[in-house]
Amino acid sequence: MTHSGKRSRIAGLGINLPSKILTNAQLEKMVDTSDEWILTRTGIRERRIADDGETASTLAIPAAQEALRRAGVAPEDLDLIVCATSTPDMSFPSTACHIQRGIGAKGCPAFDILAACSGFVYGLSVVDNFIRAGSAKNALLVASEIFSRIVDWEDRNTCVLFGDGAAAVVIKATESSSHVIDSRIRADGSYADLLTGGGGSASIVSAKQFDPKSHFIKMKGNQTFKVAVTNMAEVCSSLLADNGYTANDVALVIPHQANIRIIHAVAKSLNIPEDKMYINVHRYGNTSAATVPIAMYEAQEEGRLKKGDLVLLVAFGGGLTWGSALVRW
Ligand code: COA
User: Measured from the CB, is residue 196 less than 6 Å from ligand 1?
Assistant: First the structure.
């Protein structure tokens, strides 16, 4: 199949956030923490928690349907489905295949991307390359995470940070000036031990050795913080420079929402005013791969994304992975 448009336009967005809210005050009753500590160290006030019956795919499907509706694309017209998640429904079939069935699409390739909190930016880069190659013209990219299932609710170092949520974008091949200009995705596995989630073959051991906490997140928060800031700033700087832009050209940065102090430190390092950094971490905490598209959706709803704006996306996560994308809105 040949396609005339070779650039990727974000044509429709959707989100789905669980209605159940877990506040810092409620966390005070669960672990030895305080609203004041969480707020000053992270900027988080509350996060959403999925119901017991919810999975990554059931959370994703309404977000995908909203994105399709807004883009004016029918499920049967999709020629690619990519889902970024570190909390898949199961090891296989992929969450993307479950979403495909749930939205009534058929036949197109569907696969997951595991890049932890960088998953959406990784997915955008992959989809953009499919579109540039002429291999897709109507793609669905979803990020859906239920971190409440892999958080140790007895570990105050991690349980205050994460939340659940899903978001989706429909990406169409285009020849218009509104498109993904470029992206960079990176990883350094030598930092693998800084941030890990279990649930894979390494934690599936004999019943005798079974460790009920083996599938929980483990994190060296302090070291992760430093590497996050350095790498997020570096990848943004090089992406801008390689495309002939400076930080002054950027209208809005949509960063991964892990910690408000990381966002402020990245802004400082890039010399971008804080009011150009989109922030909603106070409402949802860190929803891993879903933070960037949830933030993008809310920025659009608030009128902060205007046609022609230069928008910089940046994320960082376990792996370690990180990446950035430059979008002309
Ligand atoms: N409530 C109260 N105290 C807490 C706490 C909590 N929820 N979590 C940790 N503490 C304590 C620690 O035990 C430590 O106590 P100690 O000094 O008696 O040992 C103290 O607070 C300071 O811990 P430290 O790790 O130095 O704090 P920090 O300023 O680095 O903030 C993080 C901790 C986790 C908020 C911060 O390191 C961070 O955000 N890191 C990045 C994590 C991240 O974003 N991961 C996802 C990346 S995608």
Answer: no
How far apart, in Å, are the Cα atoms of 199 and each of 74, 144, 206, 290? 35, 17, 14, 20
- Judge if 81 and 206 occupy the same domain: no
Does the N-terminal peptide bond of residue 313 adopt cis geometry, omega within 30 degrees of 0?
no
CB 83 within 8 A of CB 55: no
- Is 286 an active-site residue? yes
Check whether residue 253 and residue 201 sit in a common domain: yes
CATH number of the domain within which 265 lies: 3.40.47.10
Distance 222 CA to ligand 1 centre (A): 7
Residue 2 within a domain:
no
Q: Are residues 216 and 263 in the same domain?
A: yes
Asked whether residue 153 falls in the same domain as residue 220, the answer is no
Sign of the Cα pseudo-torsion (259, 306, 185, 125, in order): positive
Per-residue pLDDT tens over the stretch 146-179: 999 999 999 999 999 999 999 999 999 999 999 9
Q: Is the CB of 156 under 6 A from ligand 1?
A: yes
Give the whole-number percent of the chain exceeding pLDDT 90.
92
Q: CB of 174 closer than 6 A to ligand 1?
A: no
> What integer is the mean pLDDT of 117-132?
98
- Of 26, 41, 152, the one to substitute when testing ligand 1's pocket (max ligand atoms within 8 A of C-beta) is 41
169 and 195 belong to one structural domain = no
Q: Look at residues 147, 175, 203 and tell me which one is the last residue of a structural domain.
A: 175
